[in-house]
Amino acid sequence: MEAVIKVDKLKMGYGDRVIMECLDFEIKQGEIFIILGGSGCGKSTLLKHMIGLYKPMAGDITIKGKNIVKADAEKKRDIMKEFGVMYQSGALFGSMTLEENITMILEEVTDMSPQERHERAMEKLALVELDEFNTFYPAEISGGMKKRAAIARAMALNPDILFFDEPSAGLDPISAANLDALILKLREEFKTTIVIVTHELESIFSIADRIIMLDKETKRIIEDGDPRKLKNESKNEWVRDFLNRRESVQT
Ligand SMILES: Nc1ncnc2c1ncn2[C@@H]1O[C@H](COP(=O)(O)OP(=O)(O)OP(=O)(O)O)[C@@H](O)[C@H]1O
């Protein structure tokens, strides 16, 4: 299968401080790829580089053959249409209904008519089983529903790639499991490539095809592969402990 995302010799940090370096990996179409590592090692920073929010200290990131690091502002806007992002907080606009949260994006970046925008928004809300809640405001729905609405919004432009930063943070186990089922459904129905930062072991084992493990000390990727295999077979003791830990072990 073809690689849709390529990260090549990436070095990233803030100011002079290097957070990670020598990051090299490729993500294939339809892969569910999870970024793991201890607290503060740079998982969110990596995600933000991949979506073009930050410029790396060195290296390249290619999304569907287009280099997001070297792109000028216009090209970058174009590349950004290839993916949807769901941020940690969900970040729906509180003053807008669920439907308006989606139509707003369509109004900004497409020339769809109001009717087409309405139809697209309803299609995406139906996908996450929230079409009956289109006129609700974020404050009127549960945490799990907010996350699903944020996924519907991330899907607004029919992207081939979705990025999630801690999607199940703050959810009860049942809502978290429902969210995992939804992520699997998106991959199944649309062959969406999905990149996730998470700590949730349940999610890792139920949805990930592949994980990478970032290490704060060496500032490098210390493991890359199928979590079910790495759980017992990783040569790195810390990785085995991480994947075999029970609840609330310090990461
Ligand atoms: N905007 C910023 N400016 C300067 N330093 C930052 C910034 N954002 C993050 N950092 C630092 O970079 C390091 C990596 O942070 P990041 O949030 O990427 O880690 P993480 O692995 O996602 O952490 P967590 O698991 O706790 O969410 C941390 O030391 C953090 O303090």
From TrEMBL:
Q: Name one Pfam family in it.
A: ABC_tran
Q: Which UniProt keywords apply?
A: ATP-binding, Nucleotide-binding, Transport
One of the entry's Gene Ontology molecular-function terms is: ATP hydrolysis activity
The ABC transporter domain sits at 5-243
Domain of life of the native organism: Bacteria
Q: Which PROSITE patterns match?
A: ABC_TRANSPORTER_1, ABC_TRANSPORTER_2
* Protein name in the entry: ABC-type transport system, ATPase component
